[in-house]
Write a structure and sequence with these properties.
The protein is of the alpha/beta class. The chain is built from 11 helices and 8 strands. It has a single domain, classed as 3-Layer(aba) Sandwich (Rossmann fold).
């Protein structure tokens, strides 16, 4: 697995997937701070474009830094820029999933001239100050009311929203994140337990990580095409919130993938790859 070394001595790893045409697409995994293996091959996207899939410091095969404060989102921007320079790219197409969208927009804020195209997949919105409310999530959750697991998952969500969650409630709500709660989805969810650096995730969004006013002002002037892709059933990043997110960019395309949850490449790989490659190409 190829690596590069950050100025603080932390070794950062990345994977190269596929031999697709055109310039590579740099992919940032979410979590935050989750091993990039959860992305799989993004539904077969490497057949169309070569992917550079980064492991963030402290996650996957990247090393643990001496300074835990370097997990903070704004400080991770330097690692993204280091990777671009390492790859010899003047501009890069950047794909970010979930919480990593916060890192991607903070990178775009500091290095707008280095963005070719920006694909934000079921993105987190903390970096721009958009809050997802319990009501936002309930509206999406009710679309699944005919599912056999709905009653238990809905009760678990209510407990979480009320601040009365038990550990098992976080497991019970998992079906809300997938378009189909089948064996593949259950295996994907189970693997999360060993893929996530929980301590680093707490630092990722800690005080100072985000400056929403500055980020909004910067992306309002971003002269790059942006894709904001939502999942119809995604409780984590509800489509109605992501529609408002897309409006913050001057050149954004907003797409809702039908029947998809937080991991749209798992729910309909063909549709996800078609939408993403059409945008990237």
């Amino acid at each position: 697995m190829p690596t590069l070394t950050a100025p603080d001595g932390t070794e950062l790893a990345y994977r190269v997937l596929g031999e697709g045409a055109g310039a590579p697409v740099v992919c940032l995994p979410g979590g935050p701070m989750r091993d990039s293996v959860y992305l799989g091959d993004l539904g077969g996207l490497p057949d169309r474009r070569r992917l550079i899939v980064a492991d963030q410091r402290g996650a996957g095969l990247s090393a643990t830094p001496e300074d835990p404060a370097s997990y903070r989102c704004d400080r991770l921007v330097g690692d993204v820029e280091l990777l671009r320079v390492h790859l010899g790219l003047d501009r890069m197409d950047l794909l970010a999933h979930s919480a990593a969208a916060n890192l991607a927009v903070r990178y775009a804020e500091q290095y707008p001239h280095r963005i070719g195209r920006l694909a934000l997949i079921t993105p987190g919105t903390d970096a721009v100050g958009l809050t997802v409310t319990g009501q936002d999530r309930r509206e999406v959750g009710l679309l699944r009311k005919d599912e056999p697991w709905f009653a238990a998952a809905s009760a678990a969500f209510d407990a979480i929203d009320a601040g009365e969650a038990k550990a098992e409630d976080w497991v019970t709500i998992a079906p809300f994140l997938y378009g189909r709660w089948d064996e593949a989805a259950q295996a994907h969810r189970a693997a999360e337990e060993v893929q996530w650096n929980a301590a680093a995730a707490e630092v990722f969004g800690s005080e100072g990580a985000f400056a929403p006013d500055a980020t909004r002002a910067s992306i309002a002037a971003l002269d790059a095409p942006v894709l904001v892709l939502a999942g119809e059933f995604d409780l984590a990043s509800p489509p109605q919130v992501l529609a408002r997110f897309a409006e913050l960019f001057p050149r954004a395309e907003f797409v809702v993938q039908p029947g998809a949850g937080h991991y749209p490449w798992l729910d309909d790989a063909d549709r996800f790859v078609s939408t993403t490659t059409r945008f990237l190409d």
